[in-house]
Amino acid sequence: MTLPTEQLHTWQRGTDVPFRTRVSMGKVVDARPVFVFGFNPDVQGTEETVWDHGGIYSYPASAIQMTISSSNATTNAVVSIVGLGAGYVEQTELITLNGQTAVTTAKSYLRINGMAALSGTVADSIYLGTGVVTSGVPATVYARIINGNNRTEAGIYTVPAGHELYFDRGNVSHGSDAQNAYITARLMYRLPNILFQTGAKVTLNNFVIDFPFEYPLPLPAGTDIETRAICSKSQANAVATSFQGLLVRSET
Description:
Jelly Rolls; four-stranded antiparallel beta sheet
């Protein structure tokens, strides 16, 4: 039965509620918002990915099982992992930590798009990765939760299979107590099977720069996106980033 117009909610009429809000409400079929933010407290004279573990982020070459553990023996949090499996297929998993003892994921991951502690105790940091685990820290880290945040802060995202991301905005901010130290930041993206490309580049000093894309950048499934930064001086600089877009299910 079709309701008369006067009995419909405003989002159903589609006249009073902005399109972006209706997307966030889940009222637009096959579309959802993506918002990613990252933070790196110590960017110096070598370029790094803007993420909470530091250094240039390393991506798995193939889908692999990982381990999750904490640098503190008292951590027993329930953690949600959001990632992509083989073929960039979206998948999620819940795991209960056992302190510094490595717990192996049930699923294999090609990409990690985020991780969050949902309940329990979180002390120090939680790590997701591969290789030998020493005092709760794996040899290769793919995601990290720092105590107090309860989720990853990584300026990294990969477009899942069956979707396209229409990337429309990003920003980067810099904070330092030193004069004449500036940051050069790059928005990077890597289409499937090609090298990383620079999508935007900015320089700033104790400032924030927003870079909207008037015409959204269409990025297909399997595209890796990240923000990187380097400082003009070898000293501690805090860098934060965020970016967003509309994730749409592919028509074919």
